[in-house]
Write a structure and sequence with these properties.
Two copies of one chain form a homodimer. Chain A has twelve helices and 13 strands. Chain A is an alpha+beta fold and 373 residues long. The radius of gyration of chain A is 22 Å and the shape is globular.
């Protein structure tokens, strides 16, 4: 083995966000020493308005509307298990999570670029199934396939780069102000509960499955289907984002990909605020409540740290909130719930337990998913 | 094993271009059956001017300059061998090949989005080295790091999506007309000859290396360094593309990534033309000529089918050619060579041997690199 590979800092020791910072500095360090090509006149150097660290980058194309760009890499065995049966759902989801990032900036998705790494042993029909799933999701949200790359790879790798346009001004994560209310669309925790069910069912042996059929199911079939779908087939909140932008007043927004706790911490760090989250107000579906009760889990756990709900979490001044909630419900049928309030930056991020659980305020841990831990 | 995976069409049986066509149809088929979300008013559906099948997509952002977008996925073990020592060069090249695609459309590169799959055992310094290499190349051509994704993966995977802006009208592959001359910048075959040297040196055992030092080297050290660098550290022809666009008259253009044969076939298919390539006129460097002689290879082989030269190949009406060649040389110092002429579409793609080799015209095979064969 190469001795040089043994030396150095293990990735796990700095975590994903530490790594992103070091990589941006490595790039910049090299860039500042590099020789400029003197080819810039057609490109204004101020084109990049918002770079790393938000749901999507914001680029000002000369003369045009602000362009939003997001990219995501999904690797077999890390982000998904390849299943020839679920390839259509996998395709739908791979595009959906990127559409969600564009929506979270207050944008409309438009052009997709797909790079796919495919094992040499795969069949054409498998890759077609993946593309068909993406095509379905694309059609639902007006996205065009604009380019891509198809290469050989040991494991399946799916990289989506999605371009969109801001409806009005793009909405980042840094505009929240103390006193703003914190709101979330739909319900949270469903996708994590669905994943929990899926893993439970996958791990069961055939004998256990027969045994389980004899016993009472953990939840009814309608609940089970609903939760599995939230995990396997998330629908991005594009119409809701558009309604929010049209009504106006949203100060900061992102999508719930890593769980409410993690996203609230991001919003607070970027906006220089603290927050109080009222756990009693978290919009948790009856199906999640029933499953949590059966499994003996705290009902908030999946909502706070489960992730992959792809709901929108956003902040707005209190006086805009009643109108915003009404407008989104009228335009899209989707409910919006106030879950807390931004506070002064020195107050930290606190979770307030419901009165019947003692009503304590405790620091809320940022328990988002971290790829390298 | 899952029986369903065994059924279906093997990837190798349809090749890369066949696959791309089937995938685009799979996407479109699903899209045409899908339900439209009715969210389109901010996006003109004509935004995508040029999609799959050129060096980069061309997108008309409302009100703005034409946007060029290209994406490339590189997988360890397929496109490169990971070397902690060469990580900087690998970073440079990963960005350079995308910059070359933007240049080949007559554009200036601007904003890069990087998705990197990193083995859990990798050290932070290795990933930093890769980014530092990209940052160097970026600085040389005015590219900003605008976003990305860093994920865990068994093998290293590098996906670059690069956005750029067209200097004037984007130049595709379909504008060539019978009678247009075919030209290429710089020299071709150097990168493939460099790869040949690298593979030869890598395969040699220690004993063979000592033995080789006793014998005469296949070529001098200056030749060796020059050829290795053309393979390991290609420099995209951005300034040359800009000079060509500024002068005007180029009817079709692409970069030489898969070898002159393959690129001429692409130009002809897209422009509905045939071509005659004068092998005697191929710009082949003295180093490649010397190495070919030593190795007993036909001198044209690397230039025609080797690939990775990242020169520009383009067509222009005969009357514009002398001025174009002068202008590029004056602006950039780079030589441009006429290598043939587009002909009627029925004439096929022919290669004409030099007089001293008999002067025969033979059909030119499209021997580009194909990822799935």
């Amino acid at each position: 083995m190469d001795v040089k590979r043994q030396a150095g800092t293990p990735l796990a020791s700095i975590g994903e966000f530490g790594l992103i910072g070091r990589l941006a500095r490595a790039w910049q360090g090299a860039a500042s020493q590099g020789e400029r090509g003197g080819l810039s006149p057609v490109i204004p150097s101020q084109g990049l308005r918002l770079g790393i660290g938000d749901d999507a980058a914001v680029i000002d194309v000369p003369g045009g509307k602000p362009l939003l760009v997001t990219t995501d890499m999904l690797v077999e065995g890390v982000h998904f298990l390849w299943s020839p049966i679920r390839r259509r759902l996998l395709g739908r989801k791979a595009l959906a999570v990127n559409i969600s990032d564009i929506a979270a900036m207050g944008g409309i998705p438009a052009w997709a670029f797909l790079s796919i790494g495919v094992p040499a042993s795969a069949k054409v029909e498998e890759v077609e199934g993946l593309y068909a799933g993406m095509g379905e999701m694309a059609a639902q949200f007006g996205v065009e396939l604009a380019g891509g790359d198809t290469v050989r790879s040991d494991k399946w790798v799916i990289n989506v780069t999605l371009l969109g346009l801001a409806v009005k001004a793009p909405i980042g994560r840094s505009g929240g102000r103390p006193g703003d209310l914190i709101l979330v669309t739909g319900t949270v925790g469903d996708a994590a509960a669905g994943l929990h069910l899926l893993l439970m069912e996958t791990k069961m042996s055939q004998a256990e499955k027969m045994d389980a059929q004899m016993r009472e199911a953990p939840i009814g079939e309608a609940d089970r289907q609903a939760l599995l779908l939230r995990h396997l087939d998330p629908i991005p909140r594009v119409a809701e984002a558009r309604a929010l932008v049209d009504y106006g007043g949203v100060t900061a927004m992102m999508d719930v990909s890593d769980g409410v706790s993690s996203e609230v911490h991001h919003l607070c760090r970027n906006s220089g605020c603290g927050a109080r989250i009222d756990l009693a107000n978290l919009p948790i579906s009856p199906a999640v409540r029933r499953l949590a009760r059966r499994e003996g889990r705290e009902v908030f756990a999946w909502a706070l740290s489960g992730g992959e709900d792809y709901e929108l979490i956003f902040t707005a001044p209190e006086e805009r909130v009643p109108g915003l909630i009404d407008h989104v419900r009228r335009e899209t049928g989707t409910g919006v719930t106030v879950i807390g309030r931004l506070t002064d930056g020195t107050a930290g991020v606190m979770a307030v337990y419901p009165d019947e659980m003692g009503g304590d305020a405790v620091p809320l841990a940022a328990k988002g998913y971290n790829h390298f831990r």
